[in-house]
């Protein structure tokens, strides 16, 4: 891409993936603008994905050559009982953005999940058949199809179990450590298998794919398959915390509203071959997070 075209918009730049996309893109020489919805951060512009007029307005004002959309409703259980609101946020805006990008010649980068699969035969390749179990998973699967069928240039990044340093402190690792520091217990399913992904690594790989003018679907996740209880235990061990408060359970014991894919995870052969590098493993990713985020990892306040 020529320098004059290196302008990007990150919709949902205050979130875990979005904040790292914002930082990494600027490091790589892009002019990156960002929006937030409910968590204000200096330098970001407010935008609700469900506000079509505001969304179209910011696209026409900035005219980015790349629009990255990590922003979404991601609370799986809330989404299960709020299908209309979930599709209004996770699906409808993609249709508008894709239409705008098609007319303007831009690239849409949409972030998806292994929840588009049913978890019966994971880990999954990019071209495995989708069969989501939940409203959240369906919303992501439908949005993928809309982008693919839109005629716009689209790059779909599937990731899962994302962790990393962030301002909001909502991701699983930080919540886990805060619970352990307070002497509490946390129930973690041992029968849910995934491929934990380090947010800065997801951002790095995404921008490299953009710079290589890639389109289509790419799995961008950690290369290690691991159940959630083992992952939680590893987090505690790497920070010198006791693991006795991490209680292993079966998913069915949690009585969650939405069904979860049990045998999930993503295979990263395609992105590794395309970029010539393997994503970070769990130990190195967690070590980088915990070392770079000591102020957050204390979990005070």
Describe this structure in words.
The termini are far apart. The strands form four sheets. Strands 3-2-1-4-5-6-11 form a seven-stranded parallel sheet, with helices on both faces. A two-stranded parallel ribbon has the order 7-10. A two-stranded parallel ribbon has the order 8-13. It has one domain: NAD(P)-binding Rossmann-like Domain (Rossmann fold). It is α/β, with parallel strands linked by helices and 301 residues long. The radius of gyration is 19 Å and the shape is globular. The chain contains twelve helices and 13 strands. α6 links the parallel β5 (107-113) and β6 (153-159). It has helices at 16-27, 52-62, 76-80, 83-90, 92-104, 135-149, 172-181, 199-211, 228-238, 269-275, 282-292, 294-297; strands at residues 7-11, 31-36, 45-46, 66-69, 107-113, 153-159, 162-163, 186-189, 193-194, 197-198, 216-219, 226-227, 246-249.
Explain briefly what this protein structure is.
This protein is of the alpha/beta class. It has helices at 16-27, 52-62, 76-80, 83-90, 92-104, 135-149, 172-181, 199-211, 228-238, 269-275, 282-292, 294-297; strands spanning 7-11, 31-36, 45-46, 66-69, 107-113, 153-159, 162-163, 186-189, 193-194, 197-198, 216-219, 226-227, 246-249.
